[in-house]
């Protein structure tokens, strides 16, 4: 274990992260909105801690081993979450408790989008920008995590991804080195953000709102600058633009890269995960729209637009809302919440268990059925016409089991804090899948959840974002043994 | 013609036998003296002992003035290298090589067509066999399907079965049964007798093997006249997942339900990787339990394609007994073919198929395709008519005026893109492709002579 290396990396990250507080600080100074001190203290504290951690180890040059990888990854969200909470905690406008501030900060960085703040429309722009910025930065972290770190650590079958990037397949091999891969994906991320901003502008948002919402859309976050979320906008064009970009951001960024490089959209069609993800999305949208129409919850046009938007938003784990979907016929909110367990594709900013794992589990089930009919048959499980190793399948299965186990454990803990059945169930689903809004008491915000509840949900968000295993491995005694 | 044959294996020897009969100068090269000796005792040809690709061996075999080199040794590499040596050192005009490995064959354009490896004709037995079986499965009820004119005309062999509308009746009635379908019965083989050249009044008997020629789209209807036609096949079971089995499954799996039985588990894994929709079963076609489990009684076609003749025959018998509707069996040993009874519907001989394909390239220029039938006794060939009414004994004459040997029938004529089924009144024109059926192979030279353009008139 090389704590020194981990310390150094966290130090560097903190120094970099402190710069994220500069744009809101500038905005705050310019508008003189009273949040200047909160941001300056936050910036100062983060930078100082970063330098303190980094200075003594700055000359250290060593390669990270796998254990350091786990530690750094987990600390990345935990430490940044804590420091990111400082401006929110200190801001006099918000008056948040430390737990609430940390909840908000972690919710932002994990791109969950669950909020404890009400009265967003009246808040200073600097604070609003800061929240969106947290999500956007979290999105970058996720891309790097998903593409470079998780495959390396081999979490829950993600060595599938690693094997492919090293193998002969041209499809997945982006650029040879992790650094340049991450850079390429960051380019895609930036491009999507800019395109999304432009489209929001064209659809009728103000420049500030367009940038803010583009940040949270591309990061599959779900924070908004309005209490009514995207429901604030009456134009359907905003919702359609938003739906499109949520889908784009929930698709593997590596695939975007390949498609852009080859200037060929057929790349998406050839990828089984994307095809599966889109199929599920389309089916779910149809079900939602038809049900909304047949139960006469909404009229024709609203059913289609809101049905599409809400399905995409929840299924991709973004968590924008237009309608209070928790008041829809109970089947729909529950269906959507369950869809969020799938979430986005591998290598996207989406949460949940990822479409690839669900696809593997589904195919494995079909394979099992076939095997029962043909006991002597040799049936491979294939993704994109290539055999998937048995170890990967069992890793995916254990991921599924542990994920479910965590879900139940967190749910029980939350019930113990006194939250009601529906609220607690949906709150765990919404945080573990990095979705955001739940049902019942937590349908629009989490302000009413107890302090202990918020702490538990913070853990749940981190668990979900770190793909459970990365977090759990830190709690094993063997991890700390030399 | 001076021909060098490399390799005196089954294909090489049979080929030599065919060609020696046709007054060619044949030289056979092989590394085994005993094999060569046996060959020389039987046939009128020259043999050379040595390694086929060595220039000195080729030189001894007279490569300098040879017209053709046919490389059919066991090794693809030797075959290709020999062609290369013959081309580079001796400028041999025509080089034919057998290439088995699918790896080489899949890069045909780059390797051979580009001239990098100077081979004029590639014969891939496994590909040929695969295509052959595929044809048989696509044409239910047929024993043999042969293509002419890129598949627009087909010669099909069908066993007549009691209950077919024409069985027990005169052939000319076929016209009344199907006024719109044009066909010609080229020959009838009746068990234990000479082949019959059919007339309008010939009566078809059950168990006759009937060869008819028809356009591709009419084959099903004609077959239906001779037997209660099988429904199109759906369920195919293939025993043996070697190259042929794997290729066949790959080609069939889009349109049929395919199961492949393979004994080696490792090979099963490879197969299941290559094949998309087929079910790969680990086991042997000899296990009744496995066959029953996999629903053999509802299987339309069972193909035994392992590399072991005895296994193939036994598992075919077993499959038939257990209820498979039709069995196709790969048999390499020609001697076994005569032993086969009624249980095995179709026996496929890779040598026969390879030789047919080789022959069409060896025969003189005007012969398009050649198909060797009934173990070489009969032959179907495609010839081009040249010249005009004065210089040719064929052009400008009605078919009933042609002075063909009695064992030869004209099946069809391909005129540009038009298919004409041969009736007596059809007049042959210049550049017609004439498809002939010879029940006696020795008549080939007489036919060739007939089609040759007379020297005096050019």
Describe it.
Chain A is mostly helical and 482 residues long. Helices cover 66% and strands 1% of the residues of chain A. Chain A has helices at residues 3-18, 22-31, 36-54, 66-90, 98-109, 125-153, 159-166, 178-203, 207-218, 236-250, 253-262, 266-270, 272-294, 300-315, 331-339, 355-373, 390-416, 421-432, 451-465, 469-472, 477-480; strands at 382-383, 386-387. A two-stranded antiparallel ribbon of chain A has the order 1-2. In chain A, a hairpin with a 2-residue loop joins strand 1 (382-383) and strand 2 (386-387). Chain A is globular and about 70 Å long. Chain B folds into 4 domains: 2-123, Rossmann fold (3-Layer(aba) Sandwich), CATH 3.40.50.720; 129-226, Alpha-Beta Plaits (2-Layer Sandwich), CATH 3.30.70; 241-349, 3-Layer(aba) Sandwich (Rossmann fold); 353-457, 2-Layer Sandwich (Alpha-Beta Plaits), CATH 3.30.70. Helices cover 31% and strands 25% of the residues of chain B. Chain B contains 16 helices and 21 strands. In chain B, helix 1 (10-20) packs across helix 15 (350-362) and helix 7 packs across helix 15. Chain B is globular, with a radius of gyration of 23 Å. The mean pLDDT of chain B is 85. The A-B interface holds A 370, 374-380, 382, 385-387 and B 265, 268-269, 271-273, 276, 279-283, 290, 293-294.
């Amino acid at each position: 274990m090389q704590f020194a290396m981990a310390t150094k990396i966290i130090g560097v990250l903190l120094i970099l992260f402190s710069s994220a507080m500069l744009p809101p600080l500038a905005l705050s100074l310019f508008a003189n909105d009273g949040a200047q001190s909160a941001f300056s203290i936050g910036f100062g504290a983060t930078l100082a801690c970063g330098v303190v951690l980094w200075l003594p180890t700055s000359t250290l040059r060593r390669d990270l081993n796998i254990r350091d990888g786990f530690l750094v990854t987990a600390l990345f969200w935990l430490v940044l979450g804590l420091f990111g909470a400082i401006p929110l905690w200190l801001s006099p406008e918000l008056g948040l408790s430390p737990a609430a501030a940390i909840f908000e900060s972690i919710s932002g960085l994990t791109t969950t989008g669950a909020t404890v703040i009400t009265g967003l429309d009246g808040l200073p722009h600097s604070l609003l920008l800061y929240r969106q910025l947290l999500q956007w930065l979290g999105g970058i972290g996720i891309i790097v995590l998903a593409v470079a770190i998780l495959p390396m650590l081999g979490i829950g079958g993600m060595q599938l991804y690693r094997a492919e990037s090293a193998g002969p397949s041209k499809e997945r091999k982006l650029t040879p080195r992790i650094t340049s891969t991450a850079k390429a994906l960051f380019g895609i991320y930036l491009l999507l953000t800019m395109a999304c901003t432009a489209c929001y502008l064209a659809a009728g948002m103000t420049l500030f709102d367009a940038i803010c919402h583009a940040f949270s859309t591309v990061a599959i976050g779900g924070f908004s600058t309005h209490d009514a979320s995207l429901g604030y906008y009456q134009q359907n064009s905003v919702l359609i633009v938003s739906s499109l970009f949520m889908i784009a951001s929930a698709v593997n960024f590596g695939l975007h890269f390949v498609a852009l490089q080859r200037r060929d959209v057929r790349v998406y069609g050839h990828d089984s995960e994307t095809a599966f993800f889109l199929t599920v999305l389309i089916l779910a949208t149809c079900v939602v729209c038809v049900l909304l129409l047949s139960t006469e919850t909404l009229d024709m046009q609203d059913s289609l637009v809101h049905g599409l938007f809400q399905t995409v938003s929840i299924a991709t784990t973004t968590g924008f809302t237009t309608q209070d979907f928790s008041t829809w016929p109970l089947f729909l909110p529950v269906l959507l919440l369950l869809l969020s367990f799938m979430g986005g594709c591998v290598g996207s900013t989406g949460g949940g268990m990822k479409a690839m794992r669900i696809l593997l589990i589904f195919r494995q089930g079909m394979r099992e059925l076939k095997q029962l009919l043909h006991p002597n048959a040799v049936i491979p499980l294939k993704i994109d016409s290539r055999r998937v190793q048995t170890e990967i399948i069992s890793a995916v299965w254990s991921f599924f089991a542990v994920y479910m186990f965590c879900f139940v454990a967190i749910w029980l803990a939350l019930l113990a804090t006194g939250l009601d059945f529906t609220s607690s169930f949906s709150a765990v689903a919404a945080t573990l899948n990095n979705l955001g809004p739940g049902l019942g008491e937590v349908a629009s915000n989490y302000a009413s959840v107890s302090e202990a509840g918020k702490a538990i949900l913070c853990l749940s968000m981190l668990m979900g974002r770190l793909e459970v295993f990365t977090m759990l491995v830190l709690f094993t005694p063997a991890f700390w043994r030399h | 013609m001076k021909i060098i044959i490399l390799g005196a294996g089954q294909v090489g020897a049979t080929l030599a036998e065919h060609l020696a009969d046709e007054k060619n100068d044949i030289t056979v090269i092989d590394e085994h003296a005993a094999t060569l000796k046996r060959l020389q005792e039987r046939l009128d040809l020259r043999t050379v002992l040595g390694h086929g690709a060595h220039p000195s061996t080729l030189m001894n075999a007279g490569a300098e003035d040879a017209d053709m080199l046919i490389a059919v040794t066991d090794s693809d590499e030797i075959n290709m290298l020999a062609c290369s040596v013959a081309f580079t050192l001796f400028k041999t005009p025509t080089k034919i090589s057998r290439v088995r490995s699918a790896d080489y064959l899949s890069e045909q354009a780059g390797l051979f067509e580009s001239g990098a490896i100077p081979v004029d004709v590639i014969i891939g037995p496994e590909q040929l066999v695969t295509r052959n079986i595929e044809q048989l499965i696509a044409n239910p009820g047929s024993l043999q399907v042969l293509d002419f004119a890129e598949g627009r005309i087909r010669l099909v062999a069908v066993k007549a079965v009691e209950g077919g509308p024409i069985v027990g009746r005169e052939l000319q009635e076929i016209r009344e049964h199907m006024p719109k379908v044009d066909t010609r019965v080229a020959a009838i083989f009746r068990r234990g007798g000479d082949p019959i050249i059919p007339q309008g009044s010939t009566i078809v008997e059950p168990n006759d093997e009937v060869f008819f020629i028809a356009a591709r789209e009419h084959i099903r209807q004609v077959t239906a006249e001779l037997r209660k036609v099988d429904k199109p096949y759906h369920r195919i079971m293939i025993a043996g997942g070697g190259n042929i089995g794997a290729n066949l499954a790959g080609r069939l799996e889009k349109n049929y339900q395919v199961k492949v039985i393979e004994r080696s588990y490792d090979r099963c894994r490879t197969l299941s990787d290559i094949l998309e929709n087929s079910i790969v079963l680990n086991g042997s076609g000899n296990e009744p339990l496995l066959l029953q489990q996999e629903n053999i009684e509802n299987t339309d076609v069972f193909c035994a394609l392992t590399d072991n003749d005895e296994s193939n025959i036994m598992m075919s018998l077993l499959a038939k007994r257990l209820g498979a509707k039709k069995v196709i069996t790969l048999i390499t040993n020609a001697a076994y073919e005569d032993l086969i009874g009624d249980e095995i519907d179709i026996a496929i001989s890779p040598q026969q198929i390879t030789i047919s394909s080789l022959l069409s390239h060896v025969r003189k220029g005007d012969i398009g395709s050649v198909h060797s039938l009934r173990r070489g006794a009969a032959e179907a060939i495609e010839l081009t008519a040249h010249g005009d009414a004065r210089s040719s004994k064929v052009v400008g004459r009605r078919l009933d005026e042609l002075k063909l040997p009695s064992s030869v029938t004209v099946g069809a004529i391909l005129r540009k893109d038009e298919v004409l089924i041969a009736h007596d009144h059809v007049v042959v024109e210049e550049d017609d492709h004439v498809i002939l059926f010879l029940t006696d192979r020795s008549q080939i030279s007489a036919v060739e002579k007939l089609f040759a353009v007379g020297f005096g008139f050019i």
